[in-house]
Amino acid sequence: MNRKDLNGMGKPLPKDYVKRDVLQNFQKIAKDAGYLPYWLKLQKEIAIQLQAVNNEKELKKINKRIKEYNRVCPPSMQRPTIEYEELEKAKTNW
What we know:
By secondary structure, the protein is an all-alpha fold. It has a domain at 38-93. The protein is built from five helices and no strands. The protein has helices at residues 15-19, 22-32, 38-51, 56-72, 87-93. The termini are far apart. The mean pLDDT is 89. It comes from Oceanobacillus iheyensis (strain DSM 14371 / CIP 107618 / JCM 11309 / KCTC 3954 / HTE831). This is DnaJ homologue subfamily C member 28 conserved domain-containing protein.
């Protein structure tokens, strides 16, 4: 691919591009391209699997995934593991 063939070559950058930092620009480009971070994929999977939990054995597997999620997500997004007695409440909160 030739540099001259790149989309937007020779055009000024959008005004909102210079207002954001490098990370914010990356996040926008990644989002526009359909990229989803692993921790968000895991969060969605847990929420779906949580709806199907019927017993403590299945919940134990979900709690393992929650611990994995907590290791990879931003600290402010971490979630506690779920007790079986709190299962119905957790299904609505996830």
